[in-house]
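User: I'm curious what two different proteins look like when written out as structure tokens. Can you demonstrate?

Assistant: Sure. I'll show them one after the other, since each token string lines up with its own sequence. Here's the first protein:
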Amino acid sequence: MLIGMGAAILQGSPQTTLDTDLWVDLPERQYVRLLDLSKKLGATILARTVVALKDDTLVNFCYRVDGLRGFQRELKGCKTLRRGGIGLPVLPLERVIKSKEFIRRDKDLAALPVLKEALRLRKKTEKKGIPIS
């Protein structure tokens, strides 16, 4: 499941992000499985939870997200957005905001006003019947 600022960007937030956070339903102690798969696909392992893809995109594997419910419960509320012919489960902006409010790192607090404005504009647009993917 795509989470964090990557999910927010796909839903209209204008902020940039340095990596893509992927929440995986796998016990953290099994991180080697993801690293092995990433390596087979040509990624460079940078840390236990971070890989660089061939195009230098950074991917951060998350095994839990503080401030949210468990993976399966959050997955049920995900939006599926299509990119490049692939359906991606994406954490809704409301849930991204909730997680950032809970974590309260400086960078999360700095992102909150922009995320909340993106959510407000999204709701306003959808209320007018204009779909946003």
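Here's a second, unrelated protein for contrast:
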Amino acid sequence: MRPREAIESRNAQEARARIAVVTPFLDKTHGTERIIAEWIARLTPEFEIHLYSQRVEDIDFSGITWHRIPKFPGPHLVNFVWWFSANHLWRLWERRVRGLHHELVFSPGINCLDADVMSVHIVFEEFLRRVLPELRFARNPVRFWPRILHRRLYYRLVAGLERRLYADPRIVLIYVARKTSSEVERLFGRQRQSL
């Protein structure tokens, strides 16, 4: 490559918009994660993709910068609270210290408070309503109570975050299925948007 072409190529890369993708894990074996991986692969030629994640498998990293956030050992609820806080702090540190600004923050589901665009693959408010009878302590042996308590706390936390985020008209929501669109409309008053 000649010097002029190298400079033009570098300038073109610098001019590409930066997208932050915030998801705890990404692979091609789970449904939602596979869809996100395919979206990212299609976006990399035109956008600078920064992936904030704890675990990534089976992903081609050409055109993607992975910002690995360590996983916190222990129950899922504890790691989720850590993940939710850490990805905000990580991106804040990079913005303030390294000057790394993102034009768009995308989150598949409830992963951060500052997403511009979120995809909705499950509505935990509705899921919790359906499984709550199964999660009653009286219906389960005492040895399962710690697991039941953990699930109830986790589902309630995520449902509370959904109430805040899915109802916010500034966040563009992408629905994976009509069912999720109907649930968000019914539970949070969000009308379907046409893009």
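A detail about the second structure: The chain is about 45% helix and 15% strand.
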